[in-house]
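Record type: monomer structure entry
Structure origin: computed from sequence
Chain ID: A
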Amino acid sequence: MAVRACGLIIYRRLQPAPSSKVTDSIEYLLLQTSYGTHHWTPPKGHVDPGEDDLQTAFRETQEEAGLQASQLTLIEGYRKELHYPVRGKPKTVVYWLAEMKDCNTEIKLSEEHQAFQWLKLEDACKFAEYEDMQAMLKEVHQFLCSRE
């Protein structure tokens, strides 16, 4: 059976400079794992028995980044599934999009991660070494731009 995980792509909006576009003020949260290759990823994790996918995404975000569901606004209309093999087994990861209500909220990492960064799209894509993750971040950014 395929491994299933769920998570949130979390972004915040900084106060844009008067001359800049609103979308230039968007930063994405990436966490650096404290295991394996120390890759960078949005908060995500495996679905527990009896949990639905969205519950998993919020639980994992709380466990890995210390963010409560009440501190986030789920953005309607965006949901993305990524499919890739992990140790020879198929894995599905479902992501939703959520905005920080307060861009100064503190991030509290669990032992699963050793660092976090708020990154503009270009830097987020550099940190996210997997092509499907880079493509998803660009897609999210386009989605947000189209809503302005």
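Annotation 1: The two ends are 40 Å apart (CA to CA).
Annotation 2: The mean pLDDT is 92.
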